[in-house]
Amino acid sequence: MKAVVFKQHGPLDNVEYTDIAEPEIQPHEVLLAVKAAALNRLDLWVLAGWPGLKLKLPHVLGSDGAGVVTAVGAEVEGFAVGDRVAVNPSLSCGRCHYCILGQDNLCDKFAILGEHVDGFLAEYTAVPARNLLPLPEQTDFADAAAASLVFVTAWHSLIERGHLRAGESVLVVGAGGGVNTAAIQIARLAGAAPIYVVGSNEEKLEQARALGADVLINRNETNWGKAIYEATNRQGVDIVVDNVGAATYHTSLRSLRKGGRLLTVGNTAGATFDFDNRLIFGKHLTIIGSTMGPTADYKEVMGLVFNGRLQPVIDSILPLSQGPDALRTLSENKVIGKLVLTP
Ligand code: ZN
Hints:
Blueprint: E1 2-6, E2 15-19, E3 29-38, H1 41-48, E4 59-60, E5 64-72, E6 84-87, E7 90-91, H2 97-100, E8 111-112, E9 124-128, E10 132-134, H3 141-161, E11 170-173, H4 178-189, E12 195-199, H5 202-211, E13 215-218, H6 224-231, E14 237-242, H7 249-254, E15 256-264, H8 277-282, E16 286-289, H9 295-306, E17 314-319, H10 323-331, E18 338-342
Parallel strand pairs: 11-12, 11-14, 12-13, 14-15, 15-16, 17-18
Antiparallel strand pairs: 1-2, 1-4, 3-5, 3-9, 3-18, 5-6, 6-10, 7-8
Helix pairs in contact: 3-4, 3-9
Zinc ion is lined by residues 92-93, 95-96, 98-99, 104, 107-109.
């Protein structure tokens, strides 16, 4: 079968569209004919690799996918050949302390499809049945794939971890990325107001407005920290969503009001940096981290995608054969929303 893989960690040149063997399923898994897969920044990090990451090579990239079940393992119940499904990208054991509490994104054996095991940039992939969610007829495979990772991540961060409440002000730092476009919509749905968005160009900011942002700040034209300070009558905002990191953290902390919360699910611009701790204790700030989300959150947020109340932003849909080029485009920060590939 065709797949987008790398045979050793390293630069984008290591990614190839090639033939590999079809996966064999375990008794608890189904074989999925992938109808749509979506790229994430995670794919670039997996390609680069990090200390301790040990993958079976060649590795099939891609954490987001949706498709049709084409074979079921002997232990699988509730799914049959021909079913249309979305796939929760988080893998968990179902038995550990955290899983029993429903906090399966804290599982002792937590892993992500496409990160620790083969993913969706292929014609077929093997997926545990417990990760499947029936996909209603009215929802496209592309929407399901584009929504999965970023919507569960943003939902868990804002709603479950951040306890976002109606009427609170939210600042989203960055307008174009998948998690941020999801966060803006979720904040709007939760009744947050006003929603401020800092972005790098007018096109991304206009998109943010269409998704529900109230106040747009172009960081290339204005000092965004000062703009927030003035726009909030020198009070700051209740919540900042900062998944950038080194380049923005200091200003994000300064942009919070007393008692405010900074939510983070990752870093696109440097993970290691200094910050002024006087801001943390002096303003009673809380930094709240999370990664992915539990199964209950996945079902809840995807239900809102299925009924149209949340809508993933798709930059473009390309054939799987263009996977290597699409990863390069993603790395250049030129996309608004998700890149989707179809085998
Ligand atoms: Zn577990």
